[in-house]
Design brief:
The protein has 10 helices and 17 strands. It is α/β, with parallel strands linked by helices.
């Protein structure tokens, strides 16, 4: 029997557009005998020349510089949004009006008002809508979620989440759209990297009651691509203290001013019965400390245990490559794409939803208010 085909229109082909194309093309390898076939039918970028080049290189049937050519194409089922933050809301409105399912890069929008509207539109439609929080789908994060839900950490006491890059440490770095609040949104690095760790913190530790925030721009004047001075008005680092609804308190740091760091996402979570540590730079392992283990002279059974999460995913993933094979950043994108497209195939919404992404936006806006006013803000 021929498998049903899910046809995708890809909007944008920068780093994330290329990542999504990789995820779609490799799904049959990572996830075995899928009940559907996914194909990218067309790509839209701002440049017709680029769209033509991309379509030729990757074998896409349609190349365009007009998003509506894909949004209104009756032979396209899914719109995959990999464009700057400020464009997301309008694209989602048009895609849902055209009856498309939507896969949207994070953050969901540039403002809370837009994010909440998008969540309402998604809820009122019969379309599957999901947001790209790819780090949720790493095997070590999935195992961390299991351990917390099993009660192995007891009552959560405190936490620390970080996402550190070094990409803004050079004062000679040219400014782009991610340094421009009118394009990326007021949050800058808070929206770019912070949205990931806020999602992970809420996913693992629960919803937030209050947040306080501090923004940093180390280099307020940079040169643009044209060589002229450019006022940087989007944060290069952002620091938060948050309290969860259950009373745990912790810190979250999103920074592009972390000299020596590459893609250093990580967390530590501390509870009455145990604790967890994870680093994306060591993605195959989750460290677990069991506070209920016997402590005796010479150490007993104390200390952190390194759990080998590697490629041990639940079916249909986990067979290729071998479950014992190492994994990296791209695997989270592949598994996120699988969850979304499988939800489209089944006609059943899966997580992370637009509503969850709108909550992340709510946390970010509260943190921004706190940074502006110098007060602790409710979420």
């Amino acid at each position: 029997m021929e498998k049903p085909e899910i046809r995708i229109g890809l909007l944008g082909f920068g780093a994330m557009g290329r990542t999504h194309a990789y995820a779609v093309s490799t799904l049959p390898y990572f996830c075995g005998d899928l009940p559907f076939r996914a194909v990218i039918r067309g790509v839209a970028t701002r440049s017709m020349e680029k769209s033509n080049a991309v379509a030729k290189e990757f074998g896409f049937a349609i190349a365009t510089d007009n998003e509506d050519d894909l949004i209104n194409d009756p032979d396209i089922d899914v719109i995959d949004i990999c464009t700057p933050n400020i464009l997301h809301a309008d694209t989602v409105r048009r895609a849902l009006a055209a009856g498309k399912h939507v896969y949207c890069e994070k953050p969901l929008a540039d403002t809370l008002a837009n994010a909440e509207e998008m969540a309402r539109l998604a809820a009122d439609s019969d379309r599957i809508c999901s947001v790209v929080f790819n780090n949720r789908h790493l095997s070590a994060v999935c195992r961390a979620k299991q351990l917390i839900e099993e009660g192995r950490l007891g009552r959560l006491l405190s936490f620390d989440f970080r996402y550190l890059h070094n990409s803004c440490t050079d004062p000679e770095k040219t400014a782009g759209w991610k340094q421009t609040a009118s394009v990326c949104g007021e949050g800058g690095v808070l929206f770019d990297l912070g949205s990931h760790i806020i999602d992970l913190a809420v996913f693992l530790c629960g919803s937030f009651r209050t947040v306080s925030g501090k923004s940093q721009i180390a280099f307020p004047v940079r040169k643009g691509l044209d060589g002229k001075e450019w006022q940087t008005d989007a944060s290069e680092a952002f620091y938060m203290v948050a309290e969860t609804a259950d009373g745990a308190t912790g810190t979250l740091t999103a920074s592009k001013l972390a000299t020596g760091c590459n893609d250093d996402l990580g967390f530590a979570i501390y509870g009455t019965k145990g604790s967890l540590r994870f680093s994306l730079m060591d993605p195959n392992y989750l460290e677990f400390y069991d506070n209920t283990a016997e402590h005796a002279p010479y150490g007993g059974f104390g200390g952190f245990t390194r759990i080998e999460c590697v490629g041990r995913y639940a079916a249909p993933a986990g067979n290729f490559p071998s479950p014992k094979a190492s994994q990296g950043w791209l695997r989270g994108h592949v598994m996120g794409m699988y969850k979304f497209l499988n939800a489209v195939h089944l006609g059943r919404q899966d997580s992370p939803t637009f509503a969850e992404a709108a909550y992340v936006q709510r946390v970010m806006e509260a943190a921004l208010r706190s940074a502006q006013n110098g007060t602790v803000c409710p979420v």
